[in-house]
Design goal:
Blueprint (H helix, E strand, L loop, with lengths): L1 E11 L2 E11 L4 E5 L6 H9 L6 E8 L2 E2 L2 H4 L3 E4 L11 H9 L10 H7 L15 H14 L4 E5 L7 H14 L4 E5 L3 H4 L4 E4 L5
Parallel strand pairs: 3-8, 3-9, 6-7, 7-8
Antiparallel strand pairs: 1-2, 1-4, 4-5
Length: about 200
């Protein structure tokens, strides 16, 4: 997937969060979205995903130079962020089954293989509301990264992860990042170390 932004801006009431963004996200690259806390990184990712509309400007999502239909776009996007909630009444097994109703896993992963990858094989029948914050974050990342999508959006991916889980995340992402556009919003160097391109939101105030 590629994303073309033309004069993008977002305003809340009378305050512009960012404006006049012209940018071309190229397919099969990894981008870092930078900016201070509160600068609009999360809002920007929501616009890229289609969850928010820009106040001004246009955004185009293309695959092989063809624009996506709006109804098909969501099938090509996976998104993990601290503010995206899981359904806590589900068991882990139910959450995985529910997710797969909308998006398949990459590389023909089975549920068993997925559980091994996210290191939660002993929690299959446990309700998510009883998970630790680190377990929830691993599940969020696992569902997003393993989904068979061409656009992967990650917001502060290592939040709530301990040192061991951060090492797990880095290897896990590299295993599934090929042949897709990856965009990561974070100020943590560990999150964006492998990003080859960047966009700093503070340059568009």
């Amino acid at each position: 997937m590629e994303i073309i932004l033309k004069d993008i801006g977002k305003r809340y009431l009378y305050e512009w969060i960012f404006k006049k963004i012209d940018f071309h996200f190229q397919p099969q690259h990894r981008y870092a979205i930078l900016g201070n806390n509160g600068s609009g990184k999360s809002t920007f990712l929501k616009i890229l995903s289609g969850h928010l509309s820009p106040t001004k400007g246009t955004i185009q999502h293309h695959q092989n130079q063809q624009a996506f239909d709006t109804d098909d776009l969501y099938k090509q996007i996976s998104f993990a962020a601290p503010y995206i909630d899981l359904i806590e009444e589900f068991t882990l097994e139910e959450a995985i089954r529910f997710h797969q109703r909308f998006k398949n896993f990459r590389n023909n992963l089975t549920t068993e293989s997925f559980l091994e990858l996210i290191e939660l094989t002993d929690a299959t029948q446990k309700e998510i509301r009883f998970f630790s914050s680190g377990m929830k974050q691993r599940l969020k990342l696992g569902l997003a990264i393993c989904s068979d999508t061409t656009l992967l959006l990650l917001d502060e991916p290592t939040s709530n992860l301990d040192k061991k889980s951060i090492a797990w995340y880095n290897g896990f992402l590299n295993q599934f990042a090929d042949n897709r556009l990856v965009i990561i919003a974070s100020n943590e160097k560990r999150d964006i170390a492998d990003c080859t391109m960047q966009l700093d939101i503070t340059n568009y105030k």
